[in-house]
Amino acid sequence: MDQAPSQIRPLRADARENRDRILAVAGRLFTERGLDVPMAAIARHAGIGVATLYRRFPTREELVAAVFADQFHACASLVDDALADPDPWHGFRTFLEAVAGLQASDPGFSAAFLSSVPAAAPAEQDRERALRGFAELTARAQAAGGLRPDFVPDDLAIFLLAACGAAATPPEVAGPATRRLVGYLLAGLSADATGPLPPPAPLALRDLIH
Amino acid sequence: MDQAPSQIRPLRADARENRDRILAVAGRLFTERGLDVPMAAIARHAGIGVATLYRRFPTREELVAAVFADQFHACASLVDDALADPDPWHGFRTFLEAVAGLQASDPGFSAAFLSSVPAAAPAEQDRERALRGFAELTARAQAAGGLRPDFVPDDLAIFLLAACGAAATPPEVAGPATRRLVGYLLAGLSADATGPLPPPAPLALRDLIH
Lengths: 210, 210
Hints:
The structure is a homodimer. By secondary structure, chain A is mostly helical. Helix content of chain A is about 70%, strand content about 0%. In chain A, helix 5 crosses helix 6 (about 105-115). The longest helix of chain A is centred in the first third of the chain and has 30 residues, at about 5-35. The interface of A and B includes residues 168, 172, 194 and 195 of A.
């Protein structure tokens, strides 16, 4: 009986690792080939049998939902991290860099936002927490005098789309290109930045992560 | 004989209009459905017969090349316009706004840049003129003290990709979203902008329009 935990733990770690690998592979293939990529192709790329894949995710819809929920949850956690930063403008900048970093390193992450598939809707709770949190982060960064006052939270939708464009490059380019883009955006977001902005676009952040 | 010019002119205008419509429709369909969209679908959307389409463009490759050459030529002309501006930083800003405007209003325009189809290569002459012209515009805008000194011409490749992302939205959103994005980028491009930039990405403008 003393050995039980050490016997079980590796199995649990394996299972978790398996699940993570399936979600990572599925996310990549959904992006590259669309959401109708065959389950058999996902299993093959993940190095598991089709039966194993179906045992974990009985339907394609459940797999899509799991991929997107996972990615959205990671994003919502970044908002929490930013809010915990004692310097809100530093927290805001770190958040934008981190989200763009996720987009550059994981193409499935962008797909989660841009998909119009109902299954992709994040858990209502995660979504409201992220939206409220980002609005709060914006207000604090503006109050601290770091973020320009005419930034509106919905502008994040435009930045996510823009970073998505820069991230749609070969892997060795996506990271540096996205970082350089965010560098320019952050310089333009500073309260010190000069020049008026065109009006906000009719694009709600809420609609992007519907 | 006196009437000949007026009889010919309307025909010529019609023919030109027809060609422009075919190229516009083809550009849109190439973007929406890929470069293998049936020639019959292009003819139908352009409101002409398939025979007429084939008479003008005997092969799909010739049609693709014409669409992209047309769009690239428009872009190269924008560089010339910017170089003619007595205020180079104003010329630079106007150029960036105009290119992003083309991307927002004509999805085929982005496809021309981002396509990896050999037929999409712009005329060597147009390409060299645009690349040399933009490098010259950059140098002048920096010398005038408007554009930040650490901007490199290859950064335009990142901006084109970013605008492409913002333009991949419904038509009523694409314009305002792209303008707002360019507004932030221009604020970040100003020589007054604060904060260092991450290093340039390994992405050459020359390779984007190969």
